[in-house]
Write a structure and sequence with these properties.
single chain; mainly alpha; two-stranded antiparallel ribbon; 3 helices; elongated
Length: 140
């Protein structure tokens, strides 16, 4: 059984990849907290609806979509580049050397990433256990 074909596991993989990439960006922000002129960055937020649409599109990409009635709506493609970084601009939070990194905010993002990553990995483990139980297999 290929679990990568299941929508839940595709979405969980995408979320965990996004969280890992975001942790890299937050780490770069923290490493440059004293660099003059450095602007904090963050990743574009993932939208659950678009991620679900993207996963469903992957599942049905072998089936060509046809418009059988002119009244039917045409579909739209998901946005490209879910991991695009965006510069966070808050001019009221700059230091005298024009550094835009708020250390407390970055630490909060790092802690939030960790808890969300743990949640996603626990959900994957629970779903694997459920699949094993449904197949009559036990153990780790």
């Amino acid at each position: 059984m290929d679990l990568q074909k299941l929508t839940f596991f595709q979405i969980a993989q995408e979320r965990m990849d996004w969280l890992a990439q975001r942790q890299k960006v937050v780490s770069e922000n923290l490493a440059n907290a004293n660099t003059p002129g450095y602007q904090a960055k963050d990743l574009k937020q993932l939208d659950f609806k678009s991620e679900l649409s993207r996963s469903l599109a992957r599942e049905t990409q072998s089936i060509p979509a046809t418009r059988t009635d002119p009244a039917h709506l045409t579909g739209s493609l998901p946005q490209a580049g879910p991991y695009r970084t965006e510069t966070v601009r808050r001019p009221f939070e700059y230091t005298l050397d024009k550094n835009g990194v708020d250390v407390e905010e970055q630490m909060e993002k790092a802690a939030n990433n960790r808890s969300q990553y743990e949640l996603a990995s626990n959900l994957v483990l629970k779903n694997l256990a459920m699949i094993r139980a449904a197949l009559g297999r036990s153990g780790s």
